[in-house]
Amino acid sequence: MILMEHIVREGHPTLRQRAEEVQFPLSEADRKLGEDLINYVINSQNADICEQYGLRPGIGLAAPQVNASKRMFALHILDEDREPLSIIAINPKIVSHSVEKTYLTAGEGCLSVDRDVEGYVPRYARITIKAFNPEGKEFKKRLKGLAAIAFQHELDHLNGVMFYDHIDKESPFKEIPNATPFERE
Ligand code: K2U
Ligand code: NI
What we know:
- The strands form 2 sheets. Strands 1-2-3-6-7 form a 5-stranded antiparallel beta sheet. The chain has a 3-stranded mixed beta sheet with strand order 5-4-8, with helices on one face.
- The radius of gyration is 16 Å and the shape is globular.
- It has helices at 28-43, 47-53, 145-158, and strands at residues 60-62, 72-77, 85-97, 101-104, 123-124, 126-132, 138-144, 179-182.
- A hairpin with a 7-residue loop joins strand 2 (72-77) and strand 3 (85-97).
- It is an alpha+beta fold.
- The longest helix has 16 residues, at 28-43.
- 20% of the residues lie in helices and 25% in strands.
- The chain has 3 helices and 8 strands; from the N terminus they run ααβββββββαβ.
- It has one domain (4-182): Alpha-Beta Complex (Peptide Deformylase).
- The structure holds ligand K2U and nickel (II) ion.
- The site of nickel (II) ion has 5 residues, from helix 3.
């Protein structure tokens, strides 16, 4: 079970590396890694488990965040008024995206960042993604809203990018051109 002690924090070199492609068929270790990632995000959204183990709630977690430099992350997003998204994405790619951008008006956070970093993080409003599931089957999805934002946040982790790299240092709340704000309730 992944606990907060297993999550590396900013300054750890793995968070700034480009993670390695995952080979199929998955090794037993890689299969377990995927399970551990999705179980973390599911557990972290259960108030009792969260309290019992001192977890920070998350809707996504990428392998580099547990010091595994592999192109794999989990997303578990149920609170959208859209179909639930619960995936382990292996060797994920954005194949196309909208010109329109979006950003969380509350800004973003990160399980690997123990501080608040304010400012708007520009993201593509709609994306078409493809990835492999743990069985090696490729899937494609069109994402928007929080799912699109979260996918881009996790994909950044596979490329050594942190959310605050995207924030305008001089003017963190500068209006983002051609962007529709996303208010998270
Ligand atoms: O990668 C991570 O550190 C988990 C991130 C993922 C994330 C951050 C910002 C925006 C979307 C996804 C967060 O800790 S998950 C916490 C969270 C929950 C709901 C909405 C936004 C962030
Ligand atoms: Ni993060």
